[in-house]
Amino acid sequence: MNPITYTNEPVSPRVTMSVYYNNRKVTNGCELHTLTAQTTPRVVIGGKRDEKYTLILADSDDPKYNSQENLSWLVINIPGGTTCAQGTQVVSYKGPGPGVGVHRYRFDLYKQEEKIDKIKNINILLLRGCLKTCDFAYSHKLGDPVGVTYFNVRKQPPPPAKKKT
């Protein structure tokens, strides 16, 4: 597999991960319509059943958050060889919102050393815009991502208001 750029370092996926929106498989760099990405995706994870994984979905191109990311979804304790539905959802799924320009939404998959019983700084995570994926991974001893998939959404400006006649 080809390495995927993650922050400044390339990531070579070590665990398979397939993401589907309404039966459409996400391929790295594909463009999805904002409406397509409003439903919670089905994420299938490889690995062994006795292994646990964490999935983070974030918008890394939102200018409102400077060096931080806009958290779209967080699921922990996902057994290998299953889907995210088998894990514990910490932050519910939120599809792409309004805005302008191209935004990259990145699914980062981490292998856990052990089951996560408590999330640090959960109140901050629930604000969604205060995430640094690498800091979260470090504080929960997740190491580097073992799988990465991303898609782009081109957010359109609202249409101009119609003039009253």
TrEMBL record:
Transmembrane segments: none annotated. GO terms for biological process: positive regulation of seed germination; response to abscisic acid. It comes from the Eukaryota. Pfam families: PBP. PANTHER family: PHOSPHATIDYLETHANOLAMINE-BINDING PROTEIN (PTHR11362), PHOSPHATIDYLETHANOLAMINE-BINDING PROTEIN 4 (PTHR11362:SF82). This is Phosphatidylethanolamine-binding protein PEBP. The lineage of its organism: Eukaryota, Viridiplantae, Streptophyta, Embryophyta, Tracheophyta.
